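Task 17 of the worksheet. Students: predict the tertiary structure of the chain below and write it out as structure tokens. Keep your answer in the requested format; marks are given for formatting as well as content.
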Amino acid sequence: AVRRCWMEHMKRVVVAFVSREGQTGRIARHIADRLERRGMLARLIDLGQGETEAGADDCEGAIVLASVHRGRYEPSLSSFLMRHGPTLRRCPSAFVSVSLAAAAVDPKERVALDEIVQHFLHEVGWHPDAVLHAGGAIHERDLGLIERYAVHQIVEQKHLPLDSSGDTEFTDWQEVDDFVSAFAERVGDTSPTAGR
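Model answer:
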């Protein structure tokens, strides 16, 4: 009974994501884990798999993640944001945009990413409290020949280093953790485990 009472007072945060190659899903699971370590209940929803959205409107906060490819996000993301717009407007919310370009050091890349995100957010009518550009990853074994060629062109153009193993991760996990901490404070992180 004590555990149930304690759980009823935990802040509920929806972590919804669309992942094409898997890194966005990995970041989403990491975020959910960090929120739970802070004493919150995280409801993970994989929009790309058609998972039920039950509980998506019964939350005190929401973090939405998606990868950008060729300047666009997956249509399932727009649909989710349209369906749950009232919830996203009433509670603290954040958007994590995942891309290879986020790892680039050229300031013009960041400006271009900001424009893509702002255009998208304007289209769907959502104004999240915070936006994070997170670096994606390359797993060459999962790429077809044409995709591998295209990714190598992008990496060369952005002067990004590739690991010889074929697996290169550009996600700055400390940046993600700092983002989650700031978001948790915005939601009202009052648990005794905050910050652990």
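Marker's comment: The chain has a mean pLDDT of 82. The first strand starts at residue 12 and ends at 18.
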